[in-house]
Write a structure and sequence with these properties.
single chain, alpha+beta, two-stranded antiparallel ribbon, 2 helices, 2 strands, 32% helix
């Protein structure tokens, strides 16, 4: 698993465009233009629509990997 570098992308649309066609399903979390946290999720996982528990698992796995330095270049 890896996180693609978004630099020097200052426009988040560039990040989304680079993910196009690469994911079976995904979750996007961020702040909207009014500063409120918002999220979008979609796609299919193993031929099934993801459940809330699946999205939570995805978030927690990302958190564990992030805390363990999986995405670090160091």
């Amino acid at each position: 698993m890896s996180v693609a570098s978004i630099f020097p992308a200052n426009d988040f649309d560039t990040v989304l465009e680079s993910a196009r066609g690469e994911l079976e399903c995904g979750l996007v979390i961020g702040y909207n233009k009014d500063g409120f946290l918002t999220s979008f999720g979609g796609g299919m996982s193993g031929g099934r629509q993801p459940t809330a528990a699946f999205w939570l698992y995805m978030l927690k796995q990302f958190e564990i990997d992030l805390m363990n330095g999986v995405y670090s270049d160091e």
